[in-house]
Known about the structure:
The chain is built from 15 helices and 12 strands. The chain has helices at 2-19, 47-52, 104-108, 127-133, 147-150, 180-189, 202-209, 217-224, 240-254, 270-281, 286-301, 308-317, 319-327, 340-350, 355-366; strands at residues 28-35, 41-43, 60-65, 68-75, 85-89, 95-99, 115-122, 154-155, 166-169, 194-197, 228-230, 260-263. Strand 5 and strand 6 form a beta hairpin. It is an alpha/beta fold. The N and C termini lie far apart (64 Å). The chain is globular and about 65 Å long. The longest helix has 18 residues, at 2-19. Helix 9 (240-254) crosses helix 15 (355-366) and helix 10 (270-281) packs across helix 13. The model is unreliable at 1-23 (pLDDT under 50). It folds into 2 domains: 2-133, Elongation Factor Tu (Ef-tu), domain 3, CATH 2.40.30.90; 141-366, Protein-Tyrosine Phosphatase, Chain A. A 7-stranded mixed beta barrel has the order 1-2-6-5-4-3-7.
Amino acid sequence: MKSRIVYIISILLLTAVFMSGCVSTPDCITEVSGISKYGHAVLDTTPENLLASGITLGDTVTVSVGDFTQDIPYLDGFYVKSGDYLLRCTSDNSIEICINYGNIAEKHGIEIGDAVSLTLREKGGSLFLLEIAGGQYSSNREDFAGDEIFANFRMVTLGGIAENTLYRSASPINNDAGRASVSNMLAEKAKISSAVNLADSAEDVLHHTEKPDFSSEYYLSLFEDGKVLTSPLLNDFTSEEYISGVVAALTFLSENEPPYLVHCNEGKDRAGFTVALIGALMGASVDEISNDYMVSYENYYGITKEDEKKYAYVEEGNIQVILKSIAGLAEDESFDSINLQKAAEEFVLSHGMSKESLSNLRMKLSGNEKL
């Protein structure tokens, strides 16, 4: 009852603001129906409702909820830079207000039942984001040149990492994108001994095994043998919770045997952060780490260095931001001023990783008994 009263009052206040002439009359008034585990504000509306209101993908929309009012792009993926806002149409046709690599509900105190207004600010005002960063995402194996590309599965040999020691991939257990069985097959082929799952809890893993399309027996055997660490990370890679989860993953690897697999759902963002950090610890350069990170965007969206504008936009807005966060650099500072390996070492040690665990991890990744 209380939430409905708050909602009605919010609607009246929003209406009063619009009638006062401060902003345009909203094209859609709805409410927050849920908060996702990543802190996205899920709205009680649909893409069809937005379309009926004249709002389509690529438009710029004025979004108002509580004390938050901002012009943001309406997109079907996280094509904005780290820390930027977007109104997102998800793969299951939900509509969410999000921060890329952030928790909007926590940042702005958004709660279930809050009134939300969506007003078309500029028709096609954000189409450039779809053109620059968007791509044709497919879950059909036939659309890809090979299993490894489809599953975003690859060996990582950054810096001093030995061959056949570290791999990254899309999830071998969550088949929502239709890739799990292929990732599982490739993990078995690579003889993966230990894995870190940065997307699921242990309960989530068991839930995946109960689905009719489950066929990831090899991964399940690793999980049942205690060789899979479940360390679900949320969006904000600058948060203590996120960093602690990554450090726990690295410590787990240091205590287990390679070949290792690092994965999240797509093997792109959370796995990308973790592999970037591992690469930095193993002495890889910024360019080496960036190149490996961007392979995921080539695999999923076909973005290559030949398309300089797209490539630079994604690289600068994602992996460059991640590496500067690890190195403690401001946005306008250059990597030339720091030793990335030393900065990465200080990063993990200052967040709870022991020197012994770091030494063990480096030893196992390098394939040498002594470094």
